[in-house]
Amino acid sequence: MSQVLDAMFEKLVKEGEHVIDQGDDGDNFYVIDRGTFDIYVKCDGVGRCVGNYDNRGSFGELALMYNTPRAATITATSPGALWGLDRVTFRRIIVKNNAKKRKMYESFIESLPFLKSLEVSERLKVVDVIGTKVYNDGEQIIAQGDLADSFFIVESGEVKITMKRKGKSEVEENGAVEIARCSRGQYFGELALVTNKPRAASAHAIGTVKCLAMDVQAFERLLGPCMEIMKRNIATYEEQLVALFGTNMDIVEPTA
């Protein structure tokens, strides 16, 4: 880590400045110190905003990892500051470490049914951007009503998914009822990212749990081919909620 920090340089940006442009060669990897940025992807000649960064996050790593052109344009929407790492240093330090991570997680990621629609190269990119998080027994992983910033895959342990619904006899003392459990290879946290709504449920660790986590920007960039599978899962969620609460809790329709 000290090698990375020593090699980084500061870059100040102005509002409206293009930090990177889709199609260009990758020269640097960036970590956001402060500022807001929009992510634009051009398809059939039309640019579309697919996400944003708000005073945190990083970008530019994919072009450096795979020697491919930039996959998106990043535009500053406020004055800000970035910390950059040049291509040579990035590949010497980061790519070497990612090779170790690939060896650890490649077979696990390939075994996940919902990622079967991805090409091999796309699954490798998923391995490269995921992080690992460990939670203790009873620890909250996500909270109902919070804004979504990550998607989770259970590597080990078990996760309890609960939803609050007042006025029902089935609810527990804290006002929440258990609606599902996730174990190794299963995922959660995708619903809020697919529907662009706050978290519809909470998740807590049962015993010690290890999860692979992907932030919302990587989710939007890399899991597009899996989106239809995740949308189909919404119907299953709705059936579970109707059985438990007599309503689908409006998990899809936008709030007023």
UniProtKB/TrEMBL annotation:
Q: Name one GO molecular function term.
A: cAMP-dependent protein kinase inhibitor activity
Q: Report the CDD domains cross-referenced here.
A: CAP_ED
Alphabetical UniProt keywords:
cAMP, cAMP-binding, Nucleotide-binding, Phosphoprotein, Repeat
User: Cyclic nucleotide-binding domain location, by residue?
Assistant: 1-111, 114-240
Q: Does the keyword NADP apply?
A: no
Which biological process, per GO, is one annotated for this protein? negative regulation of cAMP/PKA signal transduction
Q: Where does 3',5'-cyclic AMP 1 bind?
A: 61, 70
Query: What are its GO cellular component terms?
Result: cAMP-dependent protein kinase complex; centrosome; cytosol; plasma membrane
What InterPro entries does the database record attribute to this sequence? cAMP-dep_PK_reg_su-like (IPR050503), cAMP_dep_PK_reg_su (IPR012198), cNMP-bd_CS (IPR018488), cNMP-bd_dom (IPR000595), cNMP-bd_dom_sf (IPR018490), RmlC-like_jellyroll (IPR014710)
Q: Where does 3',5'-cyclic AMP 2 bind?
A: 190, 199
Pfam families, per the entry = cNMP_binding
Q: Entry's SMART domains? A: cNMP
Q: Give the UniProt family note.
A: Belongs to the cAMP-dependent kinase regulatory chain family.
Can you say what this protein is called? Answer: Protein kinase cAMP-dependent type II regulatory subunit beta
Q: Which organism is it from?
A: Ursus americanus (American black bear)
Starting at the broadest rank, the lineage of the source organism is: Eukaryota, Metazoa, Chordata, Craniata, Vertebrata
